[in-house]
Amino acid sequence: MYDVLYPRVCSLGHVGVSFYFIVSGSVIVERMEEDKFTGEQHKQVVGEMAEGDAFGELALLHNIRRTATIICKENSEFLRVDKPDFDEVLRNSHQIEWERRLSILNSQPILKEWEKTEIRNTVAHTKIREFPPNTVGTAMSAVILGDIDVPADDVYLIQSGKCRVVREITMIKKESSSGKIQLKLPPINFNENNIDNNVKERVVRKFLSVHMLSKGDFFGVGEDLKKTFIISVGRVHCLLISQLIFMKKERGKSLEAMKQGMNQAFLTHKQAFKTYTEDRDWKIYKKKLVDEIVRRRKRPHSTTYDDVPIVVRVENSHYFEK
């Protein structure tokens, strides 16, 4: 059945009779949480969902009352599946999916201190996403997260595949009168309009790999992603957990620790610049060395066959040709 609802879709504690797909619009997920210090109950937003997401299966799968209130953020449209149809068509697949996500959560080292009930309650705020490989013609579709000033909505736990962390580095390239190239990082509050064209300065941008992520790693925890992109290398599967779940856990202490760990793992702009310039200098040196060897091999010399001692010619005749 097709519904247009606003503002409340279902309420905490009510009997679950339907499952919902979000056709358009967005909703917030609200639960009652107990303050561990005061014991008082208060409403807490624990997640958001948008077009393409679904909800309401938990009450139908486990025959329990609604565990959260779903409120529309805007005028929203839903495809509603009532319980008899859900049981007949969708129950088995959703039960398997629910157990799969629970198993993944139980295997995560970062959640090993969580209680079992906390992990089970978290399942409803997770989703599995597949990201395509970074192939020619589909490069943009391979960017999972990138160049954002605000924290992501979800924490990404990599289940399979690898991701490359790429950072855009802005440099000033200056050419001297002798033709020598010098690279340097721009100063703080740099303005491209201040480039001095009279001394052959120009701005260049390079995308440099600063870290690799693989199965068991995570991202989207509030780390610095300005001018930084997380790109799939091959096909990648991630389990996404609403960041709000981590924010309410120990008042966000675990999330902050994860954030600091990620920022320390990434090369800074200065470190990435140093790595790039050292690699560039090494490549230039190797090219000069190879060019010099090739040049010397082509240099004519006056040594002839007759200049080689006869004993050497006899013992190594296969090396010499008249």
TrEMBL record:
Cyclic nucleotide-binding domain residues: 13-90
InterPro entries: cNMP-bd_CS, cNMP-bd_dom, cNMP-bd_dom_sf, RmlC-like_jellyroll
A matching Pfam family: cNMP_binding
Coiled coil: none
SUPFAM superfamilies for this protein: cAMP-binding domain-like (SSF51206)
PANTHER family the record matches: CYCLIC NUCLEOTIDE-BINDING DOMAIN CONTAINING PROTEIN, CYCLIC NUCLEOTIDE-BINDING DOMAIN-CONTAINING PROTEIN
Protein's name according to its UniProt entry: Cyclic nucleotide-binding domain-containing protein
Species annotation: Pocillopora damicornis
